[in-house]
Amino acid sequence: MQLITKAPRGTKDILPIECGKWIFLENLLREESENFGFKEIRTPVFEHTELFKRTVGEDTDVVQKEMYTFSDKSGRSITLRPEGTASTARAMLENSLHNGALPIKLSYFSSCYRYEKPQAGRWREFHQFGLEIFGSQSPFADAELINTAISIFKRLGLKNIKLQINTIGCSKCRETYYDELNHYFNFYKDDLCETCLERLKTNPMRILDCKNSSCQKLIKEAPIVIEFLCKECAEHFEFLKKYLTKLQIEYVVNPRIVRGLDYYTKTVFEFVSEELGTQAVVGGGGRYDNLVSQIGGKDIPALGFGIGMERLLLILEKQGISLPSYEPCELYIASAGEEGKIKAFILANQIRQAGIKTECDIVNRTMKSQMKYADKINAKYSIAIGEDEIKDGYAMLKNMETGETRKISIGEDFISSFSKAHVELENGDALLSK
Ligand code: HAM
Predict the structure, then answer these.
(1) Is residue 387 domain-shared with residue 282, that is, in the same domain?
(2) Are residues 341 and 415 in the same domain?
(3) Does the pLDDT of residue 86 top 80, yes or no?
(4) Residue 325 lies in a domain
(5) Is the CB of 122 under 6 A from ligand 1?
(6) Of 4, 17, 207, 251, which is the most exposed, with the fewest CB atoms less than 10 Å away?
(7) Rounded distance from Cα 116 to ligand 1 centre (Å)
(8) Is the CB of 311 under 6 A from ligand 1?
(9) What is the pLDDT of residues 332-379, one digit of tens each?
(10) How far is the CA of 141 from the centre of ligand 1 (A)?
């Protein structure tokens, strides 16, 4: 087959069998986050570029190297969302949700776009499940948010997902910390990559997220922000640790977590799984107390996290946890002749209304090839309707696996007759052994 083009690099088609699993997973995430009071929000796939520049940060890899940015027909700079937080905060403000009851707890499933080098667990189009809380500065909110993620992992039966936490302080702590960082990195200036040399002037903390190997060596020994916390940030972190312990949530403090986005303040955290290889982080987030005011809103403290759906599915697969996909067709109604086909259509409609997944012929195939098709789609039961069946008002309901049959009415009492025979065939073994 000579296709004129294939799916762009770093993207993939999610085929029906996979989609069934995605839907199951999404519903579970929805249900569990609803238990904690989160309600879903849907925002546009693209936003004005300045939204991400201002929040994610001009000096981040995401903004500098990874955004899909283009001018639309009227010359506005548009960006496909690289993440979900900025859009959610914008939508929350624009629609004045903050004028209602606080805190606001929002959840989302968003496709995201980053021009990264594709590899296992790293895509250019990927999907995030995110939770955001607006309007609480209490460390109880941080603990509750982390607790929601833990509940989700537990409900999925996932093991060995390690929680790492850190605090990166507020602008007050960073005044002294930036001086320390500047001092340190200036000393090793010659070993920094070009991007980090720029970052040294504008935002030295961003150097800590650089992947370049020579910068990495320096980063390992660089001063850590946790040693420069103001009283409030230090207390916040202590309370969070205490609450996590009370909730029996295991964690390790990793003072090297800085996160790849600029908007974080105070708490940051990541969920790490060894099963993911180099892209070990399945989810991450933290507090972003200044983001809402940065985009022109009130001073509303906030926090959240995002889980990569592709990575979550990968871990589930590696841990042998299989998610259910679509159920196969329950009943296939095969037919011959125009009258037979019309009858099949009518019966199919009736039985679907009773909640039974039913298909019938729409290709005008012979009875034999309809039955082959029914086999291929793993239909559990079949009925064949031809001239005789229409004349008699009866047909045979067949269990496609066992070959067992029952005579059923295809007249007025079709549904009740089908249901009775269906139950008998379903419980065939049980009935026989009585
Ligand atoms: P993030 O750490 O950049 O945070 O992304 C969150 C998750 O998205 C990652 O842990 C990972 O599972 C997944 N992810 C990121 N990039 C890719 C990729 N290229 N391919 C596949 N999966 C990927 C955020 O985006 C923040 N908005 C999270 C947050 C919400 N913070 C506060 N609220």
Answers:
(1) no
(2) yes
(3) yes
(4) no
(5) yes
(6) 4
(7) 13
(8) yes
(9) 999 999 999 999 999 999 999 999 999 999 999 999 999 999 999 999
(10) 20
Ligand 1 centroid – CA 70 distance (Å):
22
Query: In which band, very low, low, confident or very high, does the pLDDT at 278 lie, cut at 50, 70 and 90?
Result: confident
Residues of the domain holding 71: 16-170+230-318
Q: Quick check: 25 pLDDT over 70?
A: yes
Query: Which of the listed residues 258, 292, 318 is the one where a domain comes to its end?
Result: 318
Report the domain count for the chain.
2
Quote the ligand 1 centre to 126 CA distance (angstroms): 9
Instruction: Give me the amino acid identity at 252.
Output: V
Would you say how long the chain is, in residues?
434
Q: Is the pTM of this model over 0.90?
A: yes
Domain of residue 45, CATH code: 3.30.930.10
Q: Report which residue type is found at 234.
A: A
**Which residue has the least CA distance to atom 1 on ligand 1?**
284
pLDDT of residue 430: 44
How high does pLDDT run on average in the chain? 95
- Residue written as token pair 């980090």: 196
